[in-house]
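Hey, I was hoping to borrow your eyes for a little while. I've been puzzling over a protein and I'd love to understand its fold better. The fold is given in discrete form, as structure tokens running alongside the sequence. I'd be grateful if you could look everything over and explain what you see. No rush at all, and the record is pasted right below.
>
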Amino acid sequence: MADEKAYGKFADDFMWGTATASYQIEGAWEKDGKGESVWDRHAHESGKIEDNSNADVACDSYHNYEQDVEMMKNLKVKHYRFSLSWSRLLPTADAGKPNQAGIDYYNKLINALVNAGIQPCVTLYHWDLPQCLQEKGGFLDDMIIDKFEEYANFCFEKFGDRVKMWITINEPHVNCIYGFAMGNHAPGIQDPCNGFYKVSRTMLLSHAKAWHKYDTRYRAQQKGQISISCNSDWCEAKDPSKEEDRKAAELYLEATLGWFAHPVYVDGDYPPVLKEAVAKKSEEYGMDKSRFPVMTEEEKTLIKGTHDFFGLNHYTTRLATPMTKEMEEHRLHPDLDAFIFPNMEWERAGSEWLYIAPWGLRKLLKHIATTYGNPTIIVTENGCSTKHPVGKEGDVANLEDEQRCNYISSYINEALKAVQQDGVKLQGYFLWSLMDNFEWAAGYTERFGLHYVDFNDAARPRKARKSCQIYREIIENNGFTKSRKKF
């Protein structure tokens, strides 16, 4: 039964962590030589962010990093996933002209973590591309591939002696969808039929170049691991007895997870189901060839196998059925002939897209194990939000965050089932997020934090929520014991 609780422990070396991203927490957007990023530009444009806010200060972790480390020590996490700000380190995107203040900041953070017994796990790119590169085409131009490799090499050289886990690119699928198709994320481009696909190719090649750079130049000495983090909902047929529903669910999974996982973990190329779908729609639109990028054999060879683990970001679950004329207004993308939706009976978190279905994580982990060669998996993000609409008063602090407590316990318990009952090789779990932060287009209206942050106070004080206690207890038990009163 899905609601039966599992008891037991994860592996002794299981990685318990929490996660953040540079633009969402650092602030100091133009201090000490930092360059402008695409998100600085995007958030400063009127009407782009739900509450008309920006991350100029955010959590001010540029100045408050020591407090952040203390929060992690109290949580008992031994790993912290954060991202580097490319434009803070290389304001002109030139590795020959680094910003020493940026290097100093990350050295101080990394050293503070190491001294606290917390392993730094670093994401190279969490969507905040230097604006100067965007003005040259950004990920729509092949020049970005070599620039990304140059940036990655710089980071490995400066920080790799202490960083033993690297993520090249965070959620490339989300960056493609919201940054280049819908345009509600930076860089704000709305080109769902062409640019959307072009950037998937340059992102994959950028990732691959960075992976090979680490593998050939740094791995032997630094002895770390490096991969990409893919995001995915779990998705299954609205009616499992109907083949068309099962195919709709398969298409959604391939268009979300498979789009980037299949090239990296299978054969260096896009999933056949996805290529066929885009080719079919291109023909329907009267085009003489598919709009999907064609990988050369050399590019496939470069991409295939560029992983040391499977990085997974997961939050929610969806159901699928074929697209109908009545449902056209809910179409997610011009090429996706599937109606994707949640079961409205499921409990919803704050974000309008986040429906709580813990069993979906177990099913997704099993799917990854069976589809991609049973790789070692690290859940690099998983978390639960609250929502505080603009102009409406409410308990923003929400220190007794029962829904988040239940979410954390139930999702991690399903992960334990995947390990115990399905043979999934799960190596770690990073909870999103350490604290409330700037939640992209939602601004500060959505909060995912284990810690409340008062964004109306210049000092940005943090305060632990009840979920800190729940997560810490799971960490201290390295799983679930029957002596626990509740989970």
